[in-house]
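Re: weekly structure request thread

Next one in the queue (133 aa):
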Amino acid sequence: MRTMIQRYALIEAPSILGLKPTGVERLAEVLIGNGFAERAVTVALGRVAAPALDGFFIHLDADCLDDSIMPAVDYRLAGGLSWDEVAAILQSAIASGRVAGLEVTIYNPALDADGSAGRDLTDMLVRALATDS
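Done, posted below.
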């Protein structure tokens, strides 16, 4: 019986981009100011395309989104990513054909009284994950 071991990468965008923010409160500002949405996809996909890896896993924290559109997180930050930026990042990653899985964390429904942030998050994920038949 032969055992196959698959090798996957978990991408942490700030470290891949070589960013060293002075603190968590400045992370969104630093990422956006450095063209995160565009650079992250290019750099991350370049790294996970290595022949030694069979694919990669996407970990998406909802608190990466701008505070004005995602209030349902425990630690809110102004200057985060827009729905369109996150969707574009996910679409580019998925188009690589190397995605092994996706998890979304940090969304806190207890902080989303009317459920609108959760619906918007779901709508963005549906749009980002949709494929043409």
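The longest strand covers residues 55-61. Confidence is low (pLDDT under 50) at residues 1-6, 8-28.
Next request, please.
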